[in-house]
Amino acid sequence: MNPLHPNKTCELHVHPGGCLTAQDLLDLGRNIYQDVDWTLFTDAYEQAYNTRPDPITLYQNALADPDLGFETFKSHFIYTQKDGGDFGRFQAKFNFIICLLRHPSPHQDMINTSFQMTVDQHQKEGVNFVEYRCGGGQQTHDQFIAMHHKYATTLKSATQNNFTGRYIISLCRSSAEQDYEWVQELMDTYPDLIPTLIGIDFSHFEEGYPPKDKRAFFERVHQDNQKNPERALDIVYHVGESYFDKSLESAIRWCHEIAEMGIKRLGHATALGLPPEVAVARRPNAHVQELVSEHLDQIAYDLAHATELT
Ligand SMILES: [Zn+2]
What we know:
By secondary structure, the protein is of the alpha/beta class. It has a domain of 89 residues. Helix content is 51%, strand content 11%. Strands 1-2-3-4-5-6 form a six-stranded parallel β-sheet. The chain is globular. The mean pLDDT is 92. The chain binds zinc ion. Zinc ion binds next to strand 6.
C-alpha cells in the first residue's frame, strides 16, 4: 500500500462551509440571492479590503457571464496566497457563504442539502474517515439542538460501506459553558448519536479570548470524560490563527498554553510556523502592541521557562 494512503483518505479538520466551491455558492444562491441579508459579508469585506462589494451584482454578472462574471464572483470567495495570510480577509470571504447558509427558513433545507453535498463529495473522492466541525454562531437553544441533531444524524446515516463520518461541535468562545450544556442535552436526548459526536471545538476570532480563561472549563470537561468515558468528548481548539492584537511571542505562548490543557489537536496555529519577518509585514503596525495583561503573562512565561528559552 502507498505509505501516504492513510493521509490521503483521512480528514481530521473539515469545516463543511469551507468544502463548498464557488460554483456551489452560485448554484445554492441562484434563486434567492436577491433576498439574502449580505451585511455580514459586505461589512467584513469592506473592513478587510477597503471596498464594499455588491453581492447582487456579483451574482447577476456571474449568472450572465460564466467567464469574466464568474471569475469576479469567485475572487470574492476564494481565499488565496494574495490575501496575505490575514485572518480578517479569510473570514470576510468565508462570510459570503455564511450569509447564504444562514438565510432563514424556508430555505433551511439548503443548509442540510449543502452538508449532504459535502459528505457525498468526500465519499466520491475516496476519503474514508472525516471529522466535521460545525458551529452556528450565536444561536438559540432550539436552533442549536436542531442544527447539530440534523448534522450528526446525516453523518450517522452516511457511516457505512467504508466511510466513517464523525462530528465535532464548535462552541462559541463567549458562551462555551452554555453551549456545552446543550451538547450534553443533545447526547441525553439522542443517545444513538453518541458514537458520532466525538468532540468540541473552538473557532473564529481569538482576540479577547485568552486560553487561560478556559482552564477551569476544560478541567470540567476532562472530569466529565473520566466519569463517563462512553460519551467522552475530545477538545480541539483553533489557536495561533488570528492574533494581530498581540506580540508574536504572546501568539506563540497561547499555542503552548492551550496545548498543555489536554487539548487533542490545535487548529491552524500559523503563529508557530510563520517567519516573524513575514508575520509583521502582513499589516501596518502588526504585533507592535498588546494588552498590559498579555505582556505581564509573557514576562511570567519567560521567567517560568527561562532555562528552556536560553
Ligand atoms: Zn479550522
